[in-house]
Amino acid sequence: MISDKIRPHHLERKAILYVRQSSAHQVLHNRESSALQYAMRDRLTTLGWSEIEVIDDDLGRSAAGGVQRAGFERMVAQVCLGKVGAVAAREVSRFARNSRDWQQLIEMCRVVDTVLVDQETVYAPRHGNDRLLLGLKGSLNEYELDLLRQRSLAARYEKARRGELVVGAPVGFVKAGDRYEKDPDRRVQEAISLVFNKVLELGSARQALLWFLEHNLDLPVKGKDGETAWRRPNYATIHRMIENPIYGGTYAYGKTAVVAGYDRTGVKVKIRRKARSDWLALMPNAHEGYVSWEKAEAIRKMISSNVPTSRHHGAPKHGEALLAGLLRCRRCGRKLTLRYSGAKHHIPRYSCTRGWMDNGEPRCIAFGGLRVDDAIEGALLTVVGPGAIAAAVAAEKEAGQQRDQVREALRRDLEAARYAADRAFRQYDAADPANRLVTGELEARWNTALARVAEVEAKIAAHDAATVPSTVDPASFAMLAADLKSIWTDPTTDARLKKRIVRTVIHEVIADIDTDAAEIVLLIHWVGGVHTEIRLPRRRRGQRTSTSADVIAAVRQLVLIANDDLIAGILNRNGLVTGYGNRWTRERVTSLRSHHDIAVYKPAADGIEPWLNLNNAARLLQVAPKTLRVAAEAGRIEALHPLPDGPWIFSRAVLSTAPACAITERARQNPRHPAGSHPDQQSLFSSMT
């Protein structure tokens, strides 16, 4: 029976049959539903339409409004153009299950006078009763979908709260019913364990990534098909392992939330991470993990603290500043920023400028970092020193027991490569030799597997050649630990290692400046809860890198008898360094003299030097050098001795005075210490020349 709502102008236009199912699973398995929807074509033919277009572009797409439906949009566009007399579906809920799309379709059909057809009746949106009925059906469709969703989610959440909802297993785990189990592949297990060990050892996910890349080691990843593949690692791979509680033996669910939005391209779905307190389930010790839950949490917190914020210090970097991220202003509570100055950009300076940069507030404090770092180093070495020997011996014992991680990883790669080569050979051997189309491909795969074996064997050989066996005697650590300061200040010591040691024992340093006393006040908050206050005089510009006044005074005296080359050797022999801590050279001595207006040494033109060293002065007085040195040490004759391990300097004018003559006369009268042969003494031996 043809409805009276269908008029001739409706039949003159074409009809559209809209076919949709909500998911790909329904498309594959609910075949009867698809058949019933396509059967609506017969109903449209019975109602009088001869031109019928079927739109099934949205098979496998939900009508809830979370995804974009190209077929629905094409149908609405044709309705707007006035080319459609009727839109049909098995049930009107197939059109839309959200108010936005449903009301858009009803309004467009009302404007252009298009009827809606389902398996039961015909709706004319221009009729008030039909429009009311369509509005109610749209609301019921949306409510029905929401009710079904709430029921399924409630059951899902209840199962998750019991720790029995296992959706997908990350790399390193497999699903075993309602729980997780570790991947039986030992190569995968040891690779993931190596990731956590390296992150804990190096203190940074990025440094662990660089270690894997340096040694050309691959890590396992889960493919879209669920199979495990080995690829070159990246930062996201390592960071996901650290952040996922499953590797700590913990069941977790509800870590993310889906947020739907709209932009110029249509509906856009974003995944937002939720705070840990908002997770639906977090159950430690639910299954076997790769590390303990406590260790996993310690690693996660360490990685989180590597991001420099007001609460975290940030990861240690290569800069020479020891307290980067640890200093906090006592006046405003903000962290002090760091910048480097100097010709080589290696002189640190700490300043509190965040208030000025963010809000235009006055600057709080600023001071040079060299003296502050030295003071913190001294306090740290005082604390660490007593336990340095025990720590060094324990570290050497642990290092001796630890396996070569790189070689172990390469050995596992070699075992996997040999298995793949053996499997490729067995496939090739089982094939019919006459079938070249098959054997040719299998032979190529076998050759590729053999090449992989050779590649891994070459890596192992190169690693063994580059590995130097340890020859350090553990007993020698006692001597090294006793001289911990020299090890700490050694230029080859990694700055990041020193910063990690500092952050292990020091929680924070509160800094302030006492203007009246012209001092820098540092309050050290040790990790154990003890507080130490250090006061340092404020450094003048260039004071830390200037040469010591004692060195300058010694050079002023040494230039009386020595040139710049000899002076540099004397200074180095006494262990003296420049203001920058460098050894002395002729050029540096020349620069020092030029800067302080010290005259250069020039030999006398007539050969009569006004200043003499010990040997020349003893020769002039005709006494033994030891006699003259003992007299100078006793103060019986005036002399200069600028450095402990350096020359004695005598003035020619002083050597002609009465004290010098008395020393000469006393030496000649002492029979046990003759001063030398008398000029009138004759020799008993004739000359041989």
Distance between the termini: 154 Å
Give, in spatial order, the strands making up the sheet with the most strands. 2-1-3-4-5
Rg result: 44 Å
Q: What share of residues is helical? A: 40-55%
Q: What is the residue-mean pLDDT, rounded to a whole number?
A: 81
DSSP helical segment count: 26
Shape: elongated
Task: Please give the largest β-sheet.
Answer: 5 strands, mixed
Beta content: 5-15%
**Quaternary structure annotation:** single chain
SSE order and pairing:
Layout: H1 8-12, E1 14-18, H2 24-29, H3 31-38, H4 40-47, E2 52-55, H5 70-80, E3 84-88, H6 99-112, E4 115-117, E5 122-123, H7 128-161, E6 173-176, E7 179-182, H8 186-202, H9 205-214, E8 219-222, E9 228-231, H10 235-243, E10 251-253, E11 256-263, E12 266-273, E13 281-283, H11 293-304, E14 327-329, E15 337-341, E16 347-351, H12 354-359, E17 366-368, H13 369-384, H14 388-401, H15 405-430, H16 436-466, H17 477-482, H18 484-488, H19 495-505, E18 506-514, E19 519-526, E20 531-537, H20 549-558, H21 564-573, H22 586-595, E21 611-613, H23 614-621, H24 625-634, E22 649-651, H25 652-655, H26 658-669
Parallel strand pairs: 1-2, 1-3, 3-4, 14-18
Antiparallel strand pairs: 4-5, 6-7, 8-9, 10-13, 11-12, 15-16, 16-17, 18-19, 19-20, 21-22
Helix pairs in contact: 6-7, 8-9, 8-15, 15-16, 21-22, 23-24
Defining key terms:
alpha+beta; elongated; 689 residues; 15% strand; 26 helices; five-stranded mixed β-sheet; four-stranded mixed β-sheet
Could you describe the 3D structure shown?
α23 (614-621) crosses α24. The strands form eight sheets. The chain has a five-stranded mixed beta sheet, with helices on both faces. The protein has a four-stranded mixed beta sheet with strand order 14-18-19-20. By secondary structure, it is of the alpha+beta class. The longest helix is centred in the first third of the chain and has 34 residues, at 128-161. The chain has 26 helices and 22 strands. It is elongated, with a radius of gyration of 44 Å. The chain is 45% helix and 15% strand.
